[in-house]
Amino acid sequence: MPSPLFRRSIWAIAGLIVLIAATVAAVPFIASTQIVKDRIAFEMSAWSGFRVSIEGTPDIEIWPVFRATLTDVTLTDWDDEQGSPVIEAERVEIELSALSALSGNVDFSDAHFIRPTLRLKRLADGGVEMPHSSGGRLSRAIERARATVASNPMEPDLSALPADEFGAVEFIDGRVVAVSDEGEDEILTDLTGKASLPALNKAGKLTATGVWHGEQVALELSSPRPLMLFAGGEAPIVASLKSAPVEASFDGTIDMGPDAHVDGQAKIVSPSFRRMLEWSKPGILPGSPVGSISLASKITGDLARLKIENAQVTLDGNPGMGILDMSFDGPVPSVSGTLAFDTLDLMTFASSFAPMAPTNNVATTEIDTSFSDRINLDLRLSATKATAGSIALAEVAATAQVKGGLAAFDISDAEAFGGNVQASIRFDRKPGGTQAEMRLLASDIDGGAFGTAAGMSHIVPIGRGTVSVILQGPGLNWNTLLENANGSIAATFGVGAIAGLDLPAFLKRTAGRGFFSLDEVSGGTLPVDGVELKATISNGVARIDKAEARTPTSRIWLTGIVPYVGRGLALSGAIEAKEITASTSTTTAPVAPTVPPTAFFVGGSWSAPFISPLVAPVISSPTGD
């Protein structure tokens, strides 16, 4: 027979099994009636400081995790008489402790918010304001930490920080909206992530993904002392943001005190600067910004000023380095500094803040300089080698300025065409409209190289010379500027030649008294002693004041007008023989001219000029020659 001890053991085991079964069976009943709805709401309110409301009956799960699922959960400001939820969620899943539930308490470390909505207040200036609770453990912990920081800002006693256990909060398919008198507008959608903080004095981490301005964004934040940041203290932080338009990261320390300060390494990379600006919507978007851009540097500063040191900048594959200073204490942000590049595309660079040269697609597009009201820019840059379209430059020194309606890009010194070049383009908004100005001074240059770069297909001077161009006019768009421009053009070249003019063939055709295309006599090169051009531009029409080429035996001159509209030509000119004398030991006598006097008219268009012979007495040489 079994011994009494054995029977008692059997009964003890059976009783234990019954007790466990009864306990498991009792948990849902006890939890649902004593804990879940009231106690969870109380605990959530105690932590957040908001009024918590839970609609519906909680759903309790025992296995594999003791979990309570709540529906229609709202968190509301206690002082809000209208009761508009600050946070609401369709469902909240909370992992509970079964033993705590049996004792009438709530102990949970993880909460999962499914399809939550966070409501921010839209301010009058367009910004948003985070909701503020009137109490709660988190608020009290931040206040205690703030007092700790205030007692010794330089070396706060970290052991005095609150050590309450917290846990993790997960959010799935949420959104963030801004609320104003006009209603709600979505800021973030498809928001999914997790905030982990084992205890208030421990390291914390936030990971989140969402959609902002139509683009998927991934954010990661981590800090060994996040509570210090909330309390206005200093703590290390590592942050990264990833999206298709831009990727950015920071690794350093942040001081969230009254004089907030930042010190660390930052990096930003964008495959398209324009797309990044369009996406982030900072209100600063010139017509044709640069393509790809990257910036890596050490940054230090506060809310009023940031210093970007040892900046490594790459613009469209052109690497450079320098130092930048950003100021935020004025009406608009200000950026100043110096950048040095080995190679640089000047048109691309300048297009990031000033409307550059016209193309077929944008010649009639309105030039927008409104961005110059939203940023001040003063940059000095240099480049060992640079390009401006098809023009190659070297040893470039330039400046870029944007301020109060002014957008300007100036090349103060550069080597090009075998000589020196200075150039500028400015757009200045005046009460009567935007005014544009373009200037070019090319000194001691190779005329042939200049003509090739300028796209000149007819009559190109070959030799050393100087070219000056000044244009001013309304800056509504590029066509308006050129059609109404005022200014001047001047060019002087020394001994050399004129490519694209066969003078004997020209004289032969004019002798035939029939008009002909300039292309028909462009197969030669005419040696010259010098070339000079002076023209006055008024309302888009260039009036030739002086256009003269001097050869050893003749003088060729032109006068007339060249309008921009229609690209037509209306010029008259002549070829006059120089008076040549022959000397002997006793006498000096004139020599018969080798070139017969010839007069002609030049018409047609810039791209296809034609020549029509005239009777020589019909025209006379321009005055002053």
Number of strands: 35
Radius of gyration: 40 Å
The share of residues in extended strands comes to over 45%
Look at the structure and give the mean pLDDT.
83
Fraction of residues in helix: 10-25%
Which structural class do you get from the secondary structure elements? alpha+beta
Low-confidence stretches: 14-27, 29-34
Q: What's the shape?
A: elongated
Put simply, the count of helices is 9
Summarize the main sheet: 30 strands, mixed
Distance between the termini: 145 Å
What do these coordinates show?
The chain is an alpha+beta fold and 625 residues long. The longest helix is centred in the N-terminal third of the chain and has 45 residues, at 4-48. Residues 14-27 and 29-34 have low confidence and may be disordered. The relative contact order is 0.04. Among the domains are: 280-416, no CATH class; 430-579 and 593-616, no CATH class. It is built from nine helices and 35 strands. The strands form three sheets. It has a 30-stranded mixed sheet that branches. A three-stranded antiparallel sheet has the order 22-25-27. Strands 32-33 form a two-stranded antiparallel ribbon. A hairpin with an 8-residue loop joins strand 2 and strand 3.
